[in-house]
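worker-03 picked up job from queue 'complexes'. Input manifest follows; two sequence lines, order preserved.
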Amino acid sequence: MNKPLRFSIVLLPIIIFSFFAKVLLVEEDEKFLKFNAKNLPFFELNDLDGVAVKSQSLDGIKLVNVWASWCITCLVEHPFLTKLSDENIQIVGLNYKDSSEKANAWLQKNGNPYIFSIYDPRGDLAFDLGVTGAPESFLLIDNQVIAHTQGEMTQRKWETIFYPLINKARKTK
Amino acid sequence: MIGEISHFLSLSAVVLFCLILIFNFFFIFDKTNSNQLSLSLRMFNQACWLIFISFGMYVYLSINDDFSIAYIASHSNSQLPIFYKISSIWSAHEGSMFLWIVFLTAWSILFINFLHRNHPLKRITLLMLSLIILGFLLFLLLTSNPFERILPFGAIEGADINPVLQDPALAIHPPMLYLGYVGFVISFSFITAYLFHGNFELEWEKDIKNWSLVAWMFLTIGITLGSWWAYYELGWGGYWFWDPVENVALMPWLAATAFMHSLYASSKSNVLKTWTMFLGILIFALSLFGAFIVRSGIIDSVHSFANDPQRGLYLLIFSGLITLLALGIFAYRVPSLNVSRFVISGSKESYLSMNNILMITSIFSIFLGVTYPLIIEALNGEKVSIGPPYYNTIFAPLILIASIFIMASLDSIWQRSKPFKSIVFSIILPMILSLIFTYFVWHVTAVFSILSYIGIFSGSLILFSYLYRILSNFFYKKFINIGSAVAHIGFGLLFLAISFNSILSYEKNLNLAPGETILIDESIEEFSFDDIKVLKASNHDVISVEVSLLQDGKNIFLNPQKRKYATRGQITTESSIHASILKDTYLTIGDQLENGSWTFALKINYFIKWIWFSASLMVMGMLITIFKKKAT
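worker-03 finished. Artifact:
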């Protein structure tokens, strides 16, 4: 084995590990700064009650929350979402890779903070949005994806990223 | 009180492992049979037993509903059967980490005590193992302590375990998977010890062979159980989703498979030794990487726990250091390893190494698939998803090439090239048979999907070559390795089953009123909605539907249900599955429509059983290999 190869055996893991360290250490706020607003992908799906939902129906200020009945972290962030919906934030659920029966049962058991939940059993819309799993949340303002977070929605994320944006959008209207 | 004792025992184990490390650091080049080594060995055994007893006490606490312990209070419930009270321990991050450590310790203590008393590598292996266990133990106690109490007053009743997790498959899926993951700590530590020690006259393959085979078996069972659970319990209607967590389990599996093959080759001839060592290190490095991905919250998926970045950082630094340590020693020692570099083309080991390269390629492709979204997001903040199409297109050609090499390797011999003429018949025959078979399938089903046909061709190529081999064993007494044959037939069948499943399965949404009968297709001539009843059970109401099907000339009765639980108002759906050898008929009732009719979802999934069957063939082949070796 020659020298460069031996060298790269050690160097390559260092590069990989430092990359992950960087990803891990990037603050959620910084991540947002790099986020480019993009249009909501076009979709035509039903909600959990069987009513048709189109991309155009998500106008105004909406928080789209990806959830599923099999998702344990969703249960953790659920009380916080309920609090938000009590504060008149319009939250649209995106029920991801789930069955409608289990999803409805889950909502009945844990309470429903969503104005409605888009039923996406195959994860089509989720794929277009770039969802990697549940939970994730997207902030939509007038059909534009403005901000996004992976994982649990926390008080901190809400106060530092999402709420200021919503406030700004409300003022301009 | 028992909680505190259990906590204390784990802490004592930390102290003991620290002592072993410090103590041995000064004697690292001493002779093996010194008193000092036997002392550290005793300390190691004691430390391991401390961990076992500590875990035993924790299980006891969970069975006896000690809800003053925060973890048990939030994941168990006094109403649960004992079985699920125990399995609730590994239903979330802290407890499953504890289980991981227990298995790590169990593998280590067994290996160390089975190793010959005066084995020259014993000390360094012991050090490596202690270092790894200590790292994980500190991770558990510092960042995710399962012993934390709710003070001053404990909870009166535990929050329930997620109903999805109340399933026998889930109760055994994580333990099996962990047994596989951490089992490779042995090859990892032993190879590192061998390289560090620097006496390359030593034999090392023999000592870790069976351990790696057993670990591979557990990994296979664990992955299969996970897939089985996703199909039957989660109701996603599929068995594999290329979810990041499935991917990080598949990577060590592929590395381990490559490792076993190359270990086999390097024990038969003096080639590929360097390569085998590298793979041995890589498997555990990938296991560590998997632990990091799942537990850091860097990627969300079904398996991820609610996390804080501190844990991720600790795991990243720890696994980074361990991996770098091993790879650094490897890179330093490689030039002094005296191995032959030339693989004779056309020999058995040449085909094996080709397939090894293919397996590494697939590991790299999966790694890229997992990390690509992260890379893109880090670069320009955009979000992308990598879905099944990426993996399917990458894997199909790899499988095709791999199956050709598997076939060619069957009739080849070690260390010598066999003239092409002598193996041409055993290559041409399966090729032609598989082509005919693939064409036949295409002709009958009339569905076209290039990837599935590649799968069918490759699968049948492997099958036919092995069948031919078995027949020639039967008639001409040609040598055959039974374990390997069974495992590879399982592998071939797996691709047939996956491809058939993807071209044949379909789904129909129906809408029927009670008493109605409709025709669905040639295979299901009658679908009659016979009856609907509302039954009262002790704690829930049942809407029970009776449906009879005339499927392929046979009458089938299906009984899907909906249950409404009185106390919580929870509604559950019980799908009804009729499984025959070829296909699963999967029926679920939906809602009642305004005109009084009901919606049904009818899914016909082909060859699902064959997927589990082929996985168990692979495990069986491995079992045969292990036991045959013991007998001889």
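worker-03 released lock.
Helices of chain A lie at 3-25, 28-33, 72-86, 100-110, 124-129, 155-172.
DSSP finds six helices and eight strands in chain A.
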